[in-house]
Write a structure and sequence with these properties.
The structure holds 2 protein chains of 2 kinds. By secondary structure, chain A is mainly beta. Chain A contains no helices and 11 strands. In chain A, strands 2, 4, 5, 9, 10 and 11 form a 6-stranded mixed beta sheet that branches. A 5-stranded antiparallel beta sheet of chain A has the order 1-3-8-7-6, with no helix packed on it. Chain B is an all-beta fold. Helix content of chain B is 0%, strand content 49%. The radius of gyration of chain B is 13 Å and the shape is globular. The chains are: A mainly beta, B mainly beta.
Chain lengths: 110, 114
C-alpha cells in the first residue's frame, strides 16, 4: 500500500532555533516529492523535488530528496513565529496524483 | 481575488441530511481536484476532473458521494445521507497543467455532522 510518513508529528521550538522535518515514502510510480505549508486553511506550495541530492532553497527554508533511501527533509533555520504551521509532505505518483503524509505541526514561540 | 474559491466555508448539518459544496477554480484551469482532510491528517484524494470529464474516483468515495463539473468550470460535491464520519475539511484544488505542483488549493469547506 502506498504511504507517506512524516516525523515528528509535532514540534515546539523557540524563535531562532533550526528545525528538521522528516518525510519517508513508499509509492509506486513515484514522480516527485512536494512540501506544503498549511496554516489555518489551504495548503500552500513550498517545494517540488524530483532529483536526489539537489537541495532546493527558499530563504530560510531548504529541502532535499534521497530517492535511494526514499526520504526527504525540510529544514527551517532561524525560525520565526510566522513559521508556525502544519508542514505537509506529499508524494506524486503517476501524473499529478498526490498522497499526503499526516503533517508535522510546528509551533514557534517567541 | 482570482484564487480558488469554495462555498460555503462552514457547514453544520444533522446526520442523514444531504449537503452540497461548490468549488470555483482559477479561470481557465482545466483540472479540478477534490480532497478530504480530517483532523490531524493530510488531505486524501477523492476525485478529479479534466474539463467536465470525471477521470478518477478514489475508493474512499462511497456511493453517497457524487461530484459534477457540468460545464468544465465550477464543480459541486454532494454528500447524501451524511454520517458523523463525514465530518472533515473538503478541499478543492485546480491546475492548468498536469504537474502536481501546479495545483492551487482553495480555503476548504469545513463540514460538521451532528
Amino acid at each position: 500500500e502506498d504511504k507517506v510518513v512524516q516525523s515528528p508529528l509535532s514540534l515546539v521550538v523557540h524563535e531562532g532555533d533550526t528545525v528538521t522535518l522528516n518525510c519517508s515514502y513508499e509509492v509506486t510510480n513515484f514522480r516527485s516529492l512536494l512540501w506544503y505549508k498549511q496554516e489555518k486553511k489551504a495548503p500552500t506550495f513550498l517545494f517540488m523535488l524530483t532529483s536526489s541530492g539537489i537541495e532546493k532553497k527558499s530563504g530560510r527554508l531548504s529541502s532535499i530528496l534521497d530517492k535511494k533511501e526514499l526520504f526527504s527533509i525540510l529544514n527551517i533555520t532561524a525560525t520565526q513565529t510566522g513559521d508556525s504551521a502544519v508542514y505537509l509532505c506529499a508524494a506524486e505518483y503517476n501524473t499529478d496524483k498526490l498522497i499526503f503524509g499526516t503533517g508535522t505541526r510546528l509551533q514557534v514561540f517567541p | 481575488d482570482t484564487g480558488v474559491s469554495q462555498n460555503p466555508r462552514h457547514k453544520i448539518t444533522k446526520r442523514g441530511q444531504n449537503v452540497t459544496f461548490r468549488c470555483d477554480p482559477i479561470s481557465e484551469h482545466n483540472r479540478l481536484y477534490w480532497y478530504r482532510q480530517t483532523l490531524g491528517q493530510g488531505p486524501e484524494f477523492l476525485t478529479y476532473f479534466q474539463n467536465e470529464a470525471q477521470l478518477e474516483k478514489s475508493r474512499l468515495l462511497s456511493d453517497r458521494f457524487s461530484a459534477e463539473r457540468p460545464k468544465g468550470s465550477f464543480s459541486t460535491l454532494e454528500i447524501q445521507r451524511t454520517e458523523q464520519g463525514d465530518s472533515a475539511m473538503y478541499l478543492c484544488a485546480s491546475s492548468l497543467g498536469r504537474d502536481a505542483y501546479e495545483q492551487y488549493f482553495g480555503p476548504g469547506t469545513r463540514l460538521t455532522v451532528t
